Amino acid sequence: MQQKQDKLKAQRIRAGLTQAELAKLMGVSRPTIYLVEHGKHRASPGFRKKALWAFSRIFPGITMDDLFYLPEVITKESMPGGSSNQPKNKEAI
Questions:
Q1: In whole angstroms, what is the distance from residue 34 CA to residue 32 CA?
Q2: Closest Cα partner for 69 from 26, 29, 36, 46?
Q3: Distance between CA atoms of residues 18 and 44, nearest Å
Q4: Residue 73 three-state SS
Q5: Whole-number Å distance between alpha carbons of 76 and 19
Q6: Whole-number Å distance between alpha carbons of 22 and 36
Q7: Would you tell me how many other CB atoms lie within 10 Å of the CB of residue 50?
Q8: pLDDT grade, residue 2 (50/70/90)?
Q9: Residue 58 Cα distances to 8, 9, 85, 93, angstroms
Q10: Is the distance from CB of 57 to CB of 50 less than 8 angstroms?
Q11: In this structure, what DSSP letter does residue 60 have?
Q12: pLDDT digit string (tens) for 50-84?
């Protein structure tokens, strides 16, 4: 099974970049790249934006999904039987 951080590392290797080179492009430290790639640090929204910006210079059209596994946003409407138009059941808590 592919690990969550493998997408970033795979794209970095595909681009022919070292961790240090990617870090320089993104304006972050090399240890930060290492920590994210090895799952020891979660990529912040700012980190993800910087990564997308850096990789889009190499691979035009690359998406955030190509770089990171993004959590699915769960809304009331996306849950089975969920709808914001349904009356609330006060006893079902």
A1: 5
A2: 36
A3: 21
A4: coil
A5: 40
A6: 12
A7: 18
A8: very low
A9: 14, 15, 46, 51
A10: no
A11: T
A12: 999 999 999 999 999 999 987 765 555 555 665 54
The token pair that represents 85 in the structure block: 């138009």
Spatial contact of 42 and 6, defined as CB atoms under 8 Å apart: no
Amino acid 6: pLDDT: 85
Which amino acid belongs to residue 24? Answer: K
Residue 36 corresponds to which tokens in the numbers above? 């994210």
pLDDT per position as a tens digit, 20-50: 999 999 999 999 999 999 989 999 999 999 9
Q: What is the 3-state secondary structure (H, E, C) of 13-33?
A: HHCCCCHHHHHHHHCCCHHHH
| Chain position carrying tokens 């009356």 | 87
